Amino acid sequence: MRKTLLLLVPVLLSACTYGITLDDAAKNVRTAWGGDVSGCRDMGKVTVSVQDHIGPVDRNNITVRDELEVLARNQAAELHADTIKPLADPTDGSQPWGAYQCGARPVGPAARPPVAPNNSSSPAPAGNAQTFPVHSG
């Protein structure tokens, strides 16, 4: 009996993720883990939850977090948002997320453009083009 119970626990735990899938509309929703969303339009807040334990057994933390993100992206798509950002860490299988509409604006830390090396022997490029020397070998 004990061996049967030990074999049954992984089957029950793996069955928990069944049915939590990313909707087609949510495939366009990005997650801004640490990105700046200050220039985005706030579309609201969603709170999602999943089972974080089954009986006395805690579920895998990564699986729980992944499922929460999928559910938050699904909810954000319903709000016509294209970006979500976690507002707090998961607690007891529940997590609040902010939903934002950022459009084509990339979400994340501001990237600095690459700096071209100072090559005084070549003339400055015209227009907005940048040139970079190519090193072979």
Order of helices and strands: HEEEEHEE
**Helical residue percent band:** 10-25%
Q: Classify the beta-strand content into a percent band.
A: 15-25%
N-to-C CA distance? 67 Å
**Rg over alpha carbons:** 23 Å
What is the approximate shape? elongated
Order of strands across the main sheet? 1-5-6-2
Secondary-structure-based class equals: alpha+beta
Number of DSSP E strands:
6
Q: Averaging pLDDT over every residue, what do you get?
A: 77
Low-confidence stretches: 105-113
> How many H/I helices?
2
**Largest sheet data:** 4 strands, mixed
Write a structural description.
- There is one protein chain.
- The strands form two sheets. A four-stranded mixed beta sheet has the order 1-5-6-2.
- It has two helices and six strands.
- The model is unreliable at 105-113 (pLDDT under 50).
- With 137 residues, it is α+β, with helices and mostly antiparallel strands.
Which secondary structure elements does this structure contain, and how are they paired or packed?
Blueprint: H1 2-14, E1 30-31, E2 41-49, E3 53-54, E4 57-58, H2 61-78, E5 83-86, E6 94-101
Parallel strand pairs: 1-5
Antiparallel strand pairs: 2-6, 3-4, 5-6
